[in-house]
Design brief:
The protein is α/β, with parallel strands linked by helices. The radius of gyration is 23 Å and the shape is elongated. The termini are far apart. 28% of the residues are buried. The mean pLDDT is 83.
Length: 208
């Protein structure tokens, strides 16, 4: 189907309207739309707080659901154009976080600044088969500053994602992962702690 032809009056108004007026009208329009979406399509529990310039974009029929005592700091961007966002209780989202549905988050999530939890991409067919139906993050998970979670990843309970990590595959419960792409560093951390404990014990015995 061809594009719908615009009338002469519309073209005349568009021609004579200054560019800065078009920009201002566009900004006002989208502010109204986003404010309406925020009020109408976010189901909030008690004591939920959204910071300065919180932005919520959506497409029908998707929406967001947020558990009680969850806080999103300033400049968060939540997008439900491709699926729902479900957030549990007592979660904390740092500055400049980006959340894209479909996404399900458990209770007591904590994120640092500039964390991105991405939605579906447009991969080539072999990669498309590997994508899950949604991104899932368990309870009591810590996402450190600048970490990026790709779509379809499942992160287990009590996991820690180190700063700047790019998580491309599932993370088991209780794991410590880091790097680009992120890998499980739990074994190295345990060895480091054991080595430190052994040195401290040796120093204590030497003093005696």
């Amino acid at each position: 189907m061809g594009k719908k032809k615009k009338g002469k009056l519309y073209k005349t108004i568009e021609f004579i309207t200054p560019t800065f007026v078009k920009v201002i009208v566009k900004r006002i329009f989208w502010k109204i739309v986003r404010f309406y979406n925020r009020c109408r399509y976010i189901e909030k529990g008690r004591f939920v707080e959204f910071g300065y310039r919180f932005r919520f974009d959506r497409s029908s029929p998707y929406r967001a659901r947020v558990g009680e005592k969850t806080i999103a700091e300033d400049f968060n961007v939540w997008n439900t154009d491709l699926g729902d966002i479900t957030v549990g209780k007592n979660c904390w989202f740092g500055l400049n976080n980006v959340l894209m549905g479909p996404l399900e988050i458990g209770d007591q999530l904590s994120t640092g600044p500039y964390v991105k939890i991405l939605g579906p991409r447009h991969p080539v067919p072999p990669q498309a088969a590997k994508q899950g139906e949604k991104t899932t993050i368990g309870n009591n998970v810590w996402l450190s500053t600048g970490s990026i979670i790709l779509f379809g990843v499942n992160i287990g309970d009590n996991a820690i994602i180190s700063a700047g990590s790019v998580v491309t595959k599932d993370v088991p419960a209780g794991a410590f992962v880091g790097g680009n792409p992120a890998r499980n560093l739990s074994g190295l951390i345990k060895k480091a702690w054991k080595s430190t404990d052994a040195k401290q014990q040796q120093m204590a015995s030497d003093k005696k």
